[in-house]
Amino acid sequence: MSEWTKGTVDLRMTDISDSKFQQVDAKRLTFDEVNLAETKINCANLEGLTLNDVNLTGAKITIANMSDMIFEKAQMTGAQFRDIDWPIEGVDANYNPEENYRSVVFDNCILRNTLFTKCNLSNVTITDCNITGLIINGIAIDELLSKHRN
């Protein structure tokens, strides 16, 4: 393999559509007011990536370690989360046999009309939430709690 060439590029009002970057060290890049539609990023280290004021409609993230990722002030209508799991033994470096993982937190979220199917919700805590119409396995939870209180 050849030596890496180091250089800084300052592109302004330039069309670099259909360009390819392979085996490139590109830390600390800044993109302002750019169109990255249909960009594909494969086998990349995006640790510490910041996306601000972006349109991710139709974006797809697969085979990703998203530990400590923060979604804030995001509109996610129609978003889908599938096959989400904790680290897997022998596959993920973050695997912990005691399963001492930090909690996933949903705070101040509108999850109205959300569908959870075949999810492990063991030890989930629901606090100060509007559960009107919440149904678990055919049981209306708000009605069940009302009967329990009485």
TrEMBL record:
UniProt superkingdom: Bacteria
Pfam families found in the cross-reference section: Pentapeptide
InterPro entries: 5peptide_repeat, Pentapeptide-BTB/POZ_domain
Descriptive protein name: Pentapeptide repeat protein
Species classification: Bacteria, Bacillati, Bacillota, Bacilli, Bacillales
